């Protein structure tokens, strides 16, 4: 298949060369004509736009000149004192005149000293000195006609947008300098007009003073910006002051443009229009592209077919590979999920059986003092403890085991547990630990984390019968929808590597299944790796395995990093155990399993409680409503109908003085119970554990009277 692909590519290249050589000259000539045409078209567009904005600017400035001439005519024969005397009427007239032109912000009349005599903005004008303004100083020396000033900011008490002044000399009756009439124009008016011209992206329009200062510009820039006096545009204007076309790069935004300029007749300003050379070039390239499409149809079609065929082939192979990987991952996930549901259900029911066996053994121990019987009971207790450990591992795999998650420093946890790991291996096995420079925090169950490390260590020990090395390292990694399970976010990666015999490929997908093991019956239960799998899943992480037979195995646990700081290590407590109840307390036991209820009732009575039993949450509610001596509730979580957690919430809402202790091992609800602050006891529990949990609950309840129940 690869040979056929290579032959096809060679053939296509030969056809491509043959197809290109003949029309190459024609294509080059057509491209040159297209380039010349694109430049000519751009010149026409730029010059047409320049003509439009020239006509617009000329009308605006001529209109302003007429307004200034009208003002001069109004005040021609008036002295400054007469103007001041008529300021109110003149103010209204200037105000009407200013409002008649959208481009005019305000109109002013100044005396020979630069003091405002009247303006269109306010009455009275005040006593501010404007003799330092450019539109005033330009006329002091002599009659220069109409002056266009620079961009200025309003002077207090006036505010608003920036402006530039257009002013004329105000002559007296004898021809001497009597002051200035001035119109403040808004640059934004010109910017708005230039923007409304529209056109494609890359257009340019500007109004610029003869000295290079920019009054208005699209695209807009900051204020008080000027042309580069050493730039191509400024030098071209100096050489050809009336009009011209030039290509230059702006020092303001660094964009190269072709610009057409023209001096506004009778005014010391220029109007400019332009187009980015990039846009002109793109037009040419687009036209050349059309030549390629229509000038070389056979070659283009052949190339497109070959490229499409190659792309589709690669895509099909890649899609097939991705589909196979996804299907395999889905099958494995469904298989593990099914095993999880099965083992979780079995373990949960088995906990109840262990509860009955352990409780019955405790009851028999109190009745029989014969040493032989005591040894048998010890064996039963040991079996119950081992069974509880197995169910905990099963529930961990199925993600139904309750965890006590908190923020921990993973590096500190590994270092603290390293002595235990070293003691669990032979002397011919070395353990090396590499720690990062900075603490790495994660929200996990530290006990489950230590058990996971221990399980990995024990597996590595058994995989290295002749000795070897275990390397444990900790690092951080940022994932973005890649890696195991398409994780995203910041993760702590705990790598565990051994130099053992490795894991064969044919069993690698089975190693996390509960009870799967390659060891003999006396060497393992097959629950070690399933515990690790359950731990990382409950921690919202993932685990990967990479192994080479004969060289070793690397497990990587990906655990989500926490932004919270780890809590300090708790100090050792010297507090005495919880005291026994000092008087008989009425306890409501809610348990649907009759044998478990019998054991729990016996435990509670041995602890000094008066026990009332309800086989359902509904029955418990009825007792709570009819009995007023109930001071404590001990309920299973998983029951038909209303759950123990729902019952606990109801009691908290309607009987907040009655503490509730819950019992179960089902994490989907126990985790919620812990988050909501309810004390939790895991099955199977001992009488001492029950005594301590109940006394803690009683001691934490609100007390209304020292010798009476809370209700």
UniProtKB/TrEMBL annotation:
Keywords: Cell membrane, Kinase, Membrane, Phosphoprotein, Transferase, Transmembrane, Transmembrane helix. The keyword ATP-binding does not apply. Residues 345-563 form the Histidine kinase domain. It is an enzyme of class 2 (transferase). The chain crosses the membrane at residues 12-35, 288-310. Coiled coil: none annotated. CDD domains: HisKA, PDC1_DGC_like, PDC2_DGC_like. The modification 4-aspartylphosphate is found at residue 636. Residues 586-698 form the Response regulatory domain. PROSITE patterns: HIS_KIN, RESPONSE_REGULATORY. PANTHER family: HISTIDINE KINASE (PTHR43065:SF49), SENSOR HISTIDINE KINASE (PTHR43065). This is histidine kinase. It comes from Rhodopseudomonas palustris.
